[in-house]
UniProtKB/TrEMBL annotation:
Protein's UniProt name: Protein phosphatase 1 regulatory subunit 22
Domain of life: Eukaryota
Length: 113
């Protein structure tokens, strides 16, 4: 659902086997309604209006997360993503990076500007 002018992540309760979700180039301001997507391994929220990393704790199987080109000021809320291997969070408003110590499977991290 790329370039669809989506403003809010709707509930995906019926897609419990979904492994990849791409919501690039939209107008999403908040990460929400992902609780039922426990099998998700790939999430792209690239180029939206997200200010805070939140509501990802249920995505325990997530391996790739792309939050690039948003308005995020602080990396937080990733502690439960222990399977995360790749994190893209470049071109944000980052002033603080913390909470990465639990990401022991992380192989690639891009926080550049």
């Amino acid at each position: 659902m790329t370039r669809s002018k989506i403003k809010k992540i709707q509930r995906f309760d019926f897609l419990t086997c979904l492994e990849s979700l791409v919501l690039r180039w939209n107008l999403i301001a908040k990460i929400e309604n992902l609780n039922s997507l426990t099998k998700l391994t790939h999430l792209e929220l690239y180029d939206n209006l997200i200010e805070k990393v939140e509501n990802l704790d249920c995505l325990v199987n997530l391996k790739t997360l792309d939050l690039s080109y948003n308005l995020i000021k602080k990396i937080e809320g990733l502690e439960t993503l222990t399977q995360l291997e790749t994190l893209y969070i470049l071109h944000n408003k980052l002033t603080k990076v913390e909470g990465l110590e639990t990401l022991t499977e992380l192989r690639y991290l891009d926080i550049g500007d």
